[in-house]
Specification:
383 residues, 3 domains, four-stranded antiparallel β-sheet, Butyryl-CoA Dehydrogenase, subunit A, domain 2, Butyryl-Coa Dehydrogenase, subunit A, domain 1, alpha+beta
């Protein structure tokens, strides 16, 4: 498993300090108003969080995926929405760095490294959900351009992104359909409408919107990697990074819920003793702590596979599946430890319980993760 070097350990420690000193004392004010955290975002730019997966030669930090996961965990421990602010951006950074043309890397990565240009990815369509092969958004070649028609939904950071990694069909006759898909690097402009933010249960502060493309034109050079028809393969690799990031977010939320429950169980007394000494509460804490550590190790194992350049779709799926289900269960158990106070907005565990479901549903639902895991497991153990 990847061992962080000294510089990476210092970065994780710096993130933890930022979370404890700056984020946790103020998160409630942004959360309550569903307000975009401009102050935090500016500090995150200065700390280099937007350039974590951008190579050093393009101005980024170029840390390991394992370090990226640990930084994500710390951010989510403070406020999951901040980890979401670098999620899609980091996937597009990774894709540009690994499969982008020299011109694309030079045009985008230096500006993405310092957060001056923020990116998001656009896959999901209204009514499509996880069925990406039923995609209807089309980029049609017209001379030296592509004309885009269609719509995407649940796109995080849509109002604040200057670059969209759009997965669409550029060959409608391709069989199977995914062989005719490309990732187009789209900069907002005429022909693109970004909706108002979609109201959400949790994951507040960071917007999710619908994108509508109405004959929007982009240059032919906007095809990621320069060769159309490779978008499906590219984005599936990018989603391995994305699922590690979502798993790390889940670990962060679970860790925060566990910490809150641990503190409360020592402070609160009933029948003349701290409640953690009651077996029912002590057992909850034991199970919570074990699950959080298991989720963290699964996440770092998947990150290690990516760092070694080997296929990690099964491992990333396992990490995302287990960590997200763990976050949901640990958040609920933390509410149980708090009793009635866990249902109050006065305590952070209420927020953790609202944020946790996103990781179960996002970046491919857990039902889809199980399909991916099963298929890869059989493929690797075929008789």
């Amino acid at each position: 498993m990847t061992v962080l070097d000294e510089q990476e350990r210092e970065l994780v420690a710096l993130t933890a300090e930022f979370v404890d000193r700056r984020v946790r004392p103020r998160v409630a004010e942004f959360e309550a108003e569903d307000r975009y955290p401009d102050d935090f975002i500016e500090e995150m730019k200065q700390l280099g969080f937007f350039g974590l997966l951008v190579p050093e030669e393009h101005g980024g930090t170029g840390v390991s995926t394992a370090c990226f996961a640990r930084v994500t965990e710390e951010l989510a421990r403070g406020w999951m929405s901040l980890a979401g602010a670098i999620g899609g951006h980091s996937v597009i950074s990774y894709l540009l760095a690994t499969v982008g043309t020299e011109e694309q890397r030079a045009a985008y990565l230096p500006r993405m490294a310092d957060g001056g240009l923020r990116a998001t990815m656009a896959l999901t369509e209204p009514g499509g959900g996880s069925d990406l092969q039923a995609m209807r958004t089309v980029g049609t070649r017209v001379g030296d351009e592509y004309e885009i028609r269609g719509s995407k939904t649940w796109i995080s950071n849509a109002q604040h992104s200057g670059l969209i990694g759009l997965l669409c069909r550029t060959d409608r006759d391709a069989v199977p359909a995914h062989t005719g898909m490309s990732v187009l690097l789209v900069e907002p402009g005429p022909g693109l409408t970004v909706s108002e933010k979609i109201p959400k249960l949790g994951y507040r502060g960071i917007e999710a919107c619908e994108l509508t493309f109405d004959a929007m034109r982009v240059p032919a050079g906007a095809v990621l990697g320069g060769e159309p028809g490779r978008g499906w393969v590219q984005m599936m690799r990018g989603l391995e990074v994305g699922r590690v990031q979502v798993a790390a977010r889940a670990v962060g939320v679970a860790q925060a819920a566990l910490a809150s429950a641990t503190r409360y169980a020592q402070e609160r007394e009933s029948f003349g003793t701290p409640i953690w000494k009651h077996q029912s509460v002590g057992n909850l804490l034991a199970d919570m702590a074990t699950k959080v550590q298991a989720a963290r190790l699964l996440t770092l194992d998947a990150a290690d596979k990516l760092d070694r350049g080997v296929r990690a779709d099964m491992e990333a799926g396992m990490a995302k599946l287990f960590a997200s289900e763990t976050a949901m269960q640990v958040a609920l158990d933390a509410m149980r430890v708090h009793g009635g106070y866990g249902y109050s907005k006065e305590f952070d565990v209420e927020r953790y319980f609202r944020d946790a479901p996103l990781m179960i549903l996002g970046e491919g639902t857990n039902e889809i993760q199980r399909n991916v895991i099963a298929a890869q497991w059989i493929a690797r153990h075929a008789i």
